[in-house]
Design goal:
Order of helices and strands: HHHEEEEEEEEEEEEEEEEEE
Helix content: 10-25%
Number of strands: 18
Strand content: over 45%
Amino acid sequence: MKKINQPVRLPDACKENREKILNFYRPLITGFFVPLITGLVKSYSSKNPLVMKPLRILLITAITFLSSITFVFSQSLSARDIEFDFFAPNKTSYKWQQTGYYGQMTIYDNGQKTGTTNDTYIDVQATHWLGKGFGVGLGVEGDWSGNHPANGDILGRTWTIEPSLSYGKMLSNKWGAYFTGDVSFGKDKDIYKSSTTNTTNTSDLFGYGLTIGFPYRISKYSAMTTKLFYDYSQDKTDASKQKDNTFGFGLGFEDYLGCSDFKCDVGSGFNVSKGKYDQGRWFIDAETGVLFKAGNTETHYNNPSLSFKDKFNNLDLGFHANYYVFDHLGLGGGLTYNNSVQKSDDNAFQYNTNQFQFNPEVVFNMPADNGWRNLFVKAGGYFGSNNTEVKSNNTSTTTKESSSGYNYGLGYYAFFADQTAFKICTYFTSITYKEKDTDDKTRYKGFRAEVGISHSFGK
């Protein structure tokens, strides 16, 4: 029997793989995480915290990190060393996200109906890999919203199209790296209606972005991806122009499916979904991940000629999952946190928000040996808080709200690959926001239908 403390000699192949992994991590650690952590420590130990100086640390981090890109993409592996290639010809990649929803709500202020809202949202994005590491992508996003108080209507109509070009390369059997450039354009329309007026404001949308991502394979064709990105966006009307410059960091999930990976659950006689709701299985749902953004906004008005500059940063954390404690019976839900700061360039105005929400949920799938097993009923709750602080010159106003509510409805998992499905759900929901100082309550009650990517794990 081998002694516990006896050193183990690594085969030459293992040493080579270890060196490849170290060569990958070294620029990532020294070029990104070290400057980021150093900047955080220095910033929080000073009188001007990082949240008020977002570009200072992000610019330093970005410049240092980008200097390592040449090194990363210069690493090479021979074809025989690669068992799985994220960027192989005819693969299609997309992130786990909510792809669309529709909601209609009735608003009650302190028990009195004050209006209704409705919102339709679509967000579809994918990249098709052509070969030799190159890929082309397309994103389509649209948002049609309406707010209908008693005295009129406020409508929003927004759409954007985003073509992109990518280049990717495998760094090891688990790690890959890719670079993406994109351009976006679209329209935004705001409509105000009342008994006496009807006003429409239209703006042209334009933007571009650069992203470097590092996917790490976590299952058959799925990856957990770390990203660093820059986005520029412009919103232009006849009377004004608004420009945003944003740097950010994200951690999320993506699928890389080849043609043979796409499978129709119905066409297979529902064999793809077999066993997916057994005890010990679990799902990770759309919008799970981490996103940090920081940057500045510049707004210019033509008549009279005025300009304003703001700085902002935003942190979003989300985890949405479901674990089957028994066959067909799952427990889970979602945890979300958001912190955002907006501050005028002259420090005269500052707007801070902190939001937290916990949404526990129970899911029961039909106990069947055919497609009916994909049908489920669900019920859940909402518990959260929302704190808002507004600072102007030497004054400060803080508003604290608590939120609570419930939902129940029906859903269906439509599997299109071994581990991935569209989660389609429609449900009734009621959520109440209560201001702590005044006890004023605002309640939103109605129904919602949504579609998102959901990924299955387990035995």
